[in-house]
Amino acid sequence: MKRCRNKLKLQQPKLKLQQPDEQPWICVEICSCLNEAHCLEEKILGQCKACTFGEHDLFALKLALEEALVNAVKHGNGMDPAKHVRVQYRINAERADVAIEDEGSGFNPCEVANPTDEANLERSHGRGILLMKAYMSAVVFSPSGNKVTLTKYNESNQNTSDNMSAAMG
Questions:
Q1: Are 150 and 136 in contact (CB under 8 A)?
Q2: Beta-bridge partner residues of 151
Q3: pLDDT greater at residue 47 or residue 107
Q4: What is the 3-state secondary structure (H, E, C) of the chain?
Q5: Angle, helices 34-50/55-70, rounded to nearest 10 degrees
Q6: Domain of residue 85, residue span
Q7: 149 located within any domain
Q8: Residue 5, number of CB atoms within 10 A of its CB
Q9: For 1-26, what is each residue's pLDDT tens digit?
Q10: Is residue 6 part of a domain?
């Protein structure tokens, strides 16, 4: 098996995902290798920490990022180092947004069995999606099923907390 080198390739996004007044997305492409995924996860978490995300938020982000990246490498790209995982992210003091896209054929998240149902308790599939949805502020899958966008609001940031409280009434 070919080993991946720790090279993060920056590239321009194919789609314009931000409004002109918003922070730009950082775009990275890695080969389908768990070491590469782990390095990128640590880089993103470091930026979240620098933006004063608290320990609870950092734990939630680590869990969801790891699940999404491992799913992209293992399930989406079948651990094929010739295939790539594209990651776009933007992080500020209020929120972290991370989009992870693999080269696989995708899946329908609605067809994944509920891992909390009695019949599925000993099955190993579906837990990652459940965890991502439990810990992130938002989880959105693309219609093709090969891209997930994770959003986590910084609950340690007073402005974010105030805005979330006001939105909830």
A1: yes
A2: 97, 138
A3: 47
A4: CCCCCCCCEECCCCCCCCCCCCCCCEEEEEECCHHHHHHHHHHHHHHHHHCCCCHHHHHHHHHHHHHHHHHHHHHHCCCCCCCEEEEEEEECCCEEEEEEECCCCCCCHHHCCCCCCHHHCCCCCCHHHHHHHHHCCEEEECCCCCEEEEEEECCCCHHHHHHHHHHHC
A5: 160
A6: 25-168
A7: yes
A8: 9
A9: 444 554 554 444 444 444 445 789 99
A10: no
Residue 47 within a domain: yes
List the one residue out of 86, 55, 95, 62 whose CA is nearest residue 148: 86
Q: What span, in angstroms and rounded, lies between the C-alpha atoms of 98 and 26? A: 9
Q: Give residue 107's pLDDT band: very low, low, confident or very high (50, 70, 90).
A: confident
For 34-84, write each residue's pLDDT tens digit: 999 999 999 999 999 999 999 999 999 999 999 999 999 999 999 999 999
Residue 163 in tokens:
């805005």
On whether residue 3 sits in a domain, the answer given is no
How many domains is the chain built from? 1
